Amino acid sequence: QVQLQESGGGSVQSGGSLRLSCAVSGYTASRNNRYCMGWFRQAPGKGREGVASIGMDGGTSYADSLKGRFTISQDNAKNTLYLQMNSLKPEDTAMYYCAADLGGYCRNWGYWGRGTQVTVSS
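-> structure tokens emitted (122 positions)
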């Protein structure tokens, strides 16, 4: 059974940085498998927003508003997905979730973690 577990959230001041991790179990990501991994976030009272995604070939995609501040990466040897967040702003405050599309299309997000909270104070 595929399971995703996020960690690394916390409270930081505006301008600070955080690195989120997502440990994947029950599935081994590699260049031989079709998959896409993504980060999403949901702020209080708002809908879920796509943050970034990364495919089996290492290709990445970002929300336009976050380009240059956030970086998605993966360590296949550790079966872990990362999100480096720099120059954080109060509007980045949200619950952050990782998700997996094991079909590799980056749109059928069938597996989700429980989320990790990020709070940015001004």
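DSSP finds no helices and eleven strands in the chain.
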